Automatic annotation (TrEMBL):
The gene is hutI. Residues 54-85, 87-364 form the Amidohydrolase domain. Its EC number is 3.5.2.7. It catalyses: 4-imidazolone-5-propanoate + H2O = N-formimidoyl-L-glutamate. Catalyzes the hydrolytic cleavage of the carbon-nitrogen bond in imidazolone-5-propanoate to yield N-formimidoyl-L-glutamate. It is the third step in the universal histidine degradation pathway. N-formimidoyl-L-glutamate binds at Y138, N304, G306. 4-imidazolone-5-propanoate binds at R80, Y138, H165, Q231, S307. Its cofactor is Zn(2+); Fe(3+). The keyword Hydrolase applies. This is Imidazolonepropionase.
Length: 386
């Protein structure tokens, strides 16, 4: 079966060849795309398009690659609306709220957890996300972390073991014992269902030495490392990610000049999560500063019930443009090709021959409208590679 999407007014390809000529998004006008067996098989001018079994007429609207959301925490039960309400009334965000969700998650059945993930993945899909990374981290026991990842695996291959989210209450007096649990039996139970291992490297969670130990154990078990770092204040996490040559480090809210240079030199992707700053009232980091320094930037949702309960990458794009100094093109790139880079993927995030046929038809003439019309459901249709 082949499908021709034609009469595309603006096609965002993210073709790296075009980026070399200064067009970051590799935009083509009056374009068409052919999809065969779930892959892009042809890209060109609509006037030259070959015949196909089925045809979608884009009606002059824009088509962009599906969003790649490289950071979410969808395996959870309950919500923290009261905490959000208190925060909006002046309370500050504290990572301790994570324990509220841990208690609710432990009490939920597998089916309840899976139903929650399904609901949120569907919500994401309707907003254009076609690849999603999902973390554990609200189980924090051997069984609850393993089942969190097993549930997540039912929805994506991009699963991340985050047993080192916070120290759970039963280990409050023995953080070293908890690190030993995470690097021992918990990792062994989680690894079959995970591709990545992550640590919340932050004051009140895990320090740099603990993060180093946990990432090393994960790598020995075949998982690739990533970090939550520099979210609540300056800290050692971003420098550690660069030193270890990690694929990506996420949050990056508080960065020194040395951090920025280290990210650039290491080629580690900085994943910005502006929905977190929106929901916690923390200062937005400057995407402009990172892009200008030559750092690869990704935008992700961080969808979770505590620090950021949005599943919408269009919303994050709008925030990145309005609050982080990124151009609409940079923000759209960061939510597509940038997300792919943050997951070490080359088959998603762009629309070139051979890439997965994950694409979004926008109810708009150009990608700029994603930032220009915040809050408006502009995703008319999402096509996902079979
Ligand atoms: O990415 N930073 C740590 N973890 C989540 C927050 C989780 C929560 O508050 O429940 C985050 O922001
Ligand atoms: Fe997170």
């Amino acid at each position: 079966m082949s499908l021709l999407v034609t009469n595309i007014g603006e096609l965002v390809t993210n073709d790296p060849a075009a980026a070399g000529s200064g067009d970051l998004l590799g935009v083509r006008s009056d374009a068409a795309v052919v999809v065969e067996d779930g892959l892009v098989s042809w890209v060109g001018a609509a006037a030259d398009a070959p015949a196909a079994d089925d045809v979608v007429d884009a009606g002059g609207r824009a088509v962009i690659p599906g969003f790649v959301d490289s950071h979410s925490h969808l395996v959870f039960a309950g919500d923290r609306a009261q905490e959000f309400r208190a925060r909006m009334a002046g309370e500050s965000y504290a990572a301790g709220g994570i324990r509220t969700t841990v208690a609710a998650t432990r009490a939920a059945t597998d089916d309840e957890l899976a139903a929650g993930v399904a609901r949120h993945v569907d919500e994401m899909r309707r907003q254009g996300t076609t690849t999603v990374e999902i973390k554990s981290g609200y189980g924090l026991s051997v069984d609850d972390e393993a089942r969190s990842l097993r549930v997540a695996r039912g929805f994506t291959d991009e699963t991340t073991f985050l047993g080192a989210h916070v120290v759970p209450p039963e280990y409050a007096d023995d953080p070293a014992g908890y690190v030993a649990l995470v690097t021992g039996p918990m990792l062994a139970a989680a690894a079959p269902y995970a591709r990545w291992i992550d640590v919340f490297c932050e004051r009140g969670a895990f320090d740099a030495d603990q993060a180093r130990t946990i990432l090393a154990a994960g790598e020995a078990a075949g998982l690739r490392g990533r970090l939550h770092a520099n979210q609540l204040g300056p800290g050692p996490g971003v420098a550690l990610a660069a030193e270890l040559g990690l694929t990506a480090v996420d949050h990056c809210t508080y960065l020194s000049d040395d951090d920025v240079h280290a990210l650039r030199d290491a080629g580690t992707v900085a994943t910005l999560l502006p929905g977190v700053e929106f929901s916690t009232r923390q200062p937005y980091p400057s995407g402009r500063r990172l892009v200008d320094a030559g750092v690869t930037v990704a935008l992700a949702s961080d969808c979770n019930p505590g620090s950021c309960y949005t599943s919408s990458l269009p919303f994050c794009i709008a925030l990145a443009v309005r609050e982080m100094g990124m151009t609409p093109a940079e923000a759209v790139w960061a939510a597509t090709a940038g997300g792919a880079a943050a997951l070490g993927r080359t088959d998603v995030g762009s629309l070139v021959v051979g890439s997965r046929a994950d694409l979004i038809l926008l109810d708009a003439p150009s990608h700029v409208h994603l930032a220009y019309r915040p809050g408006v459901p502009l995703v008319a249709r999402t096509l996902v590679s079979a």
